[in-house]
Amino acid sequence: MSMDDLDAELSYLMSQLEGEPGDSHEIFFRLHQILETFRAEGMALPENLVKMEQAMDAQFKKDAEDS
Questions:
Q1: Domain extent at residue 39
Q2: Is the pLDDT of residue 43 over 80?
Q3: How many separate domains does the chain show?
Q4: Which of 18, 40, 55, 57 has its CA 20 to 30 A from that of 25?
């Protein structure tokens, strides 16, 4: 994936987060994919996105335990 593609994905993801609430699992999945691409390419991970991924993961685990 090129840097332009990553930028486009991140822009789309951020617009999804700022706009109407969508499927949070879909947003998490896309965020995870983007960060995995960064990891695979050896790129520095944006700290705010890593924190968001961790927070969403923790919330999903908590929700699953409460069910």
A1: 3-66
A2: yes
A3: 1
A4: 40
Q: How is residue 65 written in tokens?
A: 């335990």
Q: Which pLDDT score is estimated for 27?
A: 84
Q: Which residue from 63, 58, 60, 53 is spatially nearest to 28, judged by alpha carbons?
A: 53
Question: Which pLDDT score, from 0 to 100, does residue 36 have?
Answer: 93
| Burial of 31: CB neighbours in 10 Å, binned 0-12, 13-18, 19+ | buried
Q: How many CA atoms lie within 13 A of 44 on its CB side?
A: 3
Phi-psi bin for 43: left (phi > 0), alpha (psi -120 to 50), beta?
beta
| pLDDT the model gives residue 21 | 58
Residues contacting 41, CB < 8 A, separation 6+: 1
Structure letter (DSSP) for residue 24:
H
